[in-house]
Specification:
This protein has 233 residues and is mainly alpha-helical. It contains 9 helices and 4 strands. The strands form 2 sheets. The chain has a two-stranded antiparallel sheet.
């Protein structure tokens, strides 16, 4: 009953704000990510951002996979190059993924970078370099290991963060998003919540770097490569 009431309230507000559901979902996802990394010492800022970045990146191929399933299409049919890595994982490259990750106004990286700018950052991490690094390390031991300064490393790797939180994130996205392309947007808005939350304890430029270094590799990981038993797209 409570969920039905919430759905009705969201629907009533969509005329004024079409993204109201996505925004509410982002806050719920942020809360779930906070809970996932909370321990008896509190919340480790770098680990929280790792989780948020990993989910933001992985939401890109996951949303595409769901769309492909609905349309009965394969990745190559929509311009995705499928790469089998030496590590046994499958990776996706191409414009559809890049569009959701970095090239659209509401893409993951522009939203994270925009929030960083609002927090006073003037020198941003190099997104092009991050993209090149991901491509160069696919299938190797260095894939998905964030390049971060000493003292600012998360307690887990992005792939482990995505594996742990994605089932919860996916359920939230299904509940609050009207369109599949809103999945990465919802996750990026949750990442912005993270940037705001840690602003007093962590340099916003480092926060943006953590999000970048965790989001970009996970955006190239084919959904089935997380090893989850339930659907990931």
């Amino acid at each position: 009953m409570k969920r039905l009431a919430m759905a009705g309230a969201i629907s009533a507000q969509k005329a004024d704000d079409p993204l109201i559901g996505v925004k509410i979902g982002a806050k719920e996802l942020f809360g779930q990510c906070m809970a996932a990394v909370h321990d008896d010492r509190g919340v480790h800022a770098e680990t929280l951002l790792c989780v948020l970045g990993a989910i933001s990146g992985f939401a890109c191929p996951a949303a595409i996979a769901e769309q492909l399933a609905l349309k009965g299409l394969t990745p190559p049919q929509v311009g995705i190059m499928v790469v089998e890595g030496a590590d046994g994982r499958t990776y996706w490259f191409g414009d559809p993924v890049n569009h959701l990750l970095a090239e659209d106004h509401y893409a993951v990286w522009p939203l994270i970078a925009g929030k960083a700018q609002a927090l006073g950052v003037t020198h941003f991490p190099d997104a092009a370099n991050a993209m090149q690094h991901v491509a160069a390390t696919v299938g190797g031991a260095d894939f998905g290991i964030p390049r971060l300064p000493e003292g600012h490393r998360p307690a887990l790797l992005p792939i482990d963060a995505a594996r742990a939180v994605w089932p919860t994130a996916r359920a939230i996205m299904i509940r609050y998003c009207d369109e599949l392309r809103e999945w990465p947007l919802l996750a990026a808005l949750a990442a912005q919540e993270g940037q705001e939350t840690v602003r007093d304890s962590l340099d916003p430029a480092i926060a943006a770097t953590i999000l970048l270094e965790c989001a970009f590799p996970m955006a190239k990981l084919a959904p089935g490569s997380l090893g989850l038993s339930q659907p990931v797209g």
